[in-house]
UniProtKB/TrEMBL annotation:
InterPro entries: AdhesinB, Bact_metal-bind_prot9, Lipoprotein_PsaA-like, ZnuA-like. It comes from the Bacteria. The keyword Nucleus does not apply. Coiled coil: none annotated. It comes from Pandoraea faecigallinarum. Transmembrane segments: none annotated. GO terms for biological process: cell adhesion; metal ion transport. This is Metal ABC transporter substrate-binding protein. GO terms for cellular component: cell envelope.
């Protein structure tokens, strides 16, 4: 279902290359799997979602029975987002508000306090054990669980359970869609394993903007280096930047990426000083406005394909 060609290094739109038709076919097959009809109803269940990636997953489970409103849109940074009065108005009409939790939405406590939200707050990472990481010398929780499709399956179950509780008449509909989506995630993991199989562990090293890919790295044996910490609000120290430049020069790392939500200047500076070329961008905390990553499944495919191609050039 997810078997795609890896020929050539992706650049811009050409990264999709000949694999575009296969991706679209996979998306169509998934859509057909979700074709179970919803009960005709005059009003869909209104739900709010904190950011674009999670909004797509909620839509995939909720289908025609939900009306999804996302606060942080495509190519926007959830870490630095500042809620507005318009966000309070958006939430006031929803019955559920789905969030990642684990500190990913640092603005969430302020929003909840100012909005007096009357609905149910649903943390989709509930029941999952987070990984810890060192950020600025301190042990912190990594909130980016959505970068691991295996963990996303539990998030899907949590979403289906919350929707079913709020809309009991749609419980079987949500359960069927959740089952289909978990199957698509299983296929995605198998596909990713095949794309990465030919790359030796010693070459599975990548430099990117902030430390958002730890769960992906843990699942697929990739080491991610980042000048910024777990949040894009972190500031890279001159010492850390210098250490990264020396590491790239010494080890022959060539897989260097910026992110769709981050200012590219720091990564470009590191790449210039280390005498390497930036391979392009990865989609970290948001979907894209362009056609490359408008769904979570597309985002993950794009990232894996780009990573696999770039890591082959590592020495």
């Amino acid at each position: 279902m997810f078997g795609l060609s890896q020929r050539g290094k992706p650049q811009g739109k050409s990264r999709l290359g000949a694999g575009l038709s296969v991706v679209l076919a996979a998306m169509f097959a998934l859509a057909m799997a979700f074709a179970a009809p919803a009960r005709a109803q005059d009003t869909r269940l209104p739900v709010g979602v904190s950011f674009s990636i999670l909004a797509d997953i909620v839509k995939s489970v909720g289908g025609d029975r939900v009306d999804v409103t996302a606060l942080v849109g495509p190519d926007q940074d959830t870490h630095t987002y500042e809620p507005t009065p318009a966000d309070v108005a958006k939430l006031s009409g929803t019955r559920l508000f789905f969030v990642n939790g684990l500190g990913f939405e640092g603005w969430l406590p302020r929003l909840m306090k100012s909005s007096h939200y009357p609905g149910q707050l649903v943390t989709v990472t509930k029941g999952l054990k987070p990984r810890t990481m060192v950020d600025d010398g301190k042990a912190v929780t990594d909130p980016h669980m959505f970068q691991d499709p295996e963990r996303v399956k539990t998030m899907v179950d949590n979403i289906a359970a919350a929707l079913s509780q709020a809309d009991p008449a749609g419980a079987s509909y949500y359960a069927e869609r959740a089952k289909n989506y978990r199957g698509a995630l299983d296929d995605l993991i198998k596909w990713a394993d095949k794309q990465l199989a030919a790359i030796p562990p010693s070459r599975r090293v990548v430099l990117t903007s902030h430390d958002a890919f730890g769960y992906l790295g843990q699942r697929f044996g990739i080491k991610f280096l980042a000048p910024e910490g777990v949040s894009t609000q972190s500031e890279a120290s001159a010492k850390d930047v210098a250490n990264l430049i020396r590491l790239i020069r010494r080890t022959g790392i060539r897989a260097v990426f910026m992110e769709n939500i981050s200012n590219p200047r720091l990564v470009e500076r590191i790449a210039h000083d280390a005498r390497v070329t930036v391979d392009g961008k990865l989609y970290s905390d948001a979907l894209s406005k362009n056609p490359e990553a408008t769904t979570y499944l597309q985002l993950f495919q794009y990232n894996i394909r780009a990573l696999a191609t770039a890591m082959k050039d590592n020495r």
